[in-house]
Amino acid sequence: MYTPKSSKHFNCSSALSLLKRVTQFRSTKVFRRSHCSKMAQSAKPISSPVPESLYPTLALFMLAVGLVVTASFFIYEATSSRKNRSLAKELTSGAVASVFLGFGSLFLLLASGVYV
């Protein structure tokens, strides 16, 4: 197994020498120093698609919608007889409530500073 001379850094030059040793072809165009420098220059930091200022608003809105849908689910279950219940309506309202409560909880955690 090939180990670079400096075990701390594995840079483009060591990648090129490793590629040359493995393939034994000098005309390989997989890694070039120009490609490595272009990759380093084009790197962008990862950012959230949602602005951080909207986290509390989204948390409040989604939790409110999720709780309303959950309440309507419980009211439907308590007021309808066993013969009149619809499995599709129960699954739909349960899934919608679950999605809104899940994303509401996520944004609540993000708004409070717990980055998950």
TrEMBL record:
<dbReference type="GO" id="GO:0006487">
    <property type="term" value="P:protein N-linked glycosylation"/>
</dbReference>
<comment type="function">
    <text>Subunit of the oligosaccharyl transferase (OST) complex that catalyzes the initial transfer of a defined glycan (Glc(3)Man(9)GlcNAc(2) in eukaryotes) from the lipid carrier dolichol-pyrophosphate to an asparagine residue within an Asn-X-Ser/Thr consensus motif in nascent polypeptide chains, the first step in protein N-glycosylation. N-glycosylation occurs cotranslationally and the complex associates with the Sec61 complex at the channel-forming translocon complex that mediates protein translocation across the endoplasmic reticulum (ER). All subunits are required for a maximal enzyme activity.</text>
</comment>
<comment type="similarity">
    <text>Belongs to the OST5 family.</text>
</comment>
<dbReference type="GO" id="GO:0034976">
    <property type="term" value="P:response to endoplasmic reticulum stress"/>
</dbReference>
<keyword id="KW-0472">Membrane</keyword>
<keyword id="KW-1133">Transmembrane helix</keyword>
<feature type="transmembrane region" description="Helical">
    <location>
        <begin position="96"/>
        <end position="115"/>
    </location>
</feature>
<comment type="subunit">
    <text>Component of the oligosaccharyltransferase (OST) complex.</text>
</comment>
<dbReference type="GO" id="GO:0008250">
    <property type="term" value="C:oligosaccharyltransferase complex"/>
</dbReference>
<feature type="transmembrane region" description="Helical">
    <location>
        <begin position="54"/>
        <end position="76"/>
    </location>
</feature>
<dbReference type="InterPro" id="IPR007915">
    <property type="entry name" value="TMEM258/Ost5"/>
</dbReference>
<dbReference type="GO" id="GO:0005789">
    <property type="term" value="C:endoplasmic reticulum membrane"/>
</dbReference>
<protein>
    <recommendedName>
        <fullName>Dolichyl-diphosphooligosaccharide-protein glycosyltransferase subunit OST5</fullName>
    </recommendedName>
</protein>
<dbReference type="GO" id="GO:0062062">
    <property type="term" value="F:oligosaccharyltransferase complex binding"/>
</dbReference>
<dbReference type="Pfam" id="PF05251">
    <property type="entry name" value="Ost5"/>
</dbReference>
<keyword id="KW-0812">Transmembrane</keyword>
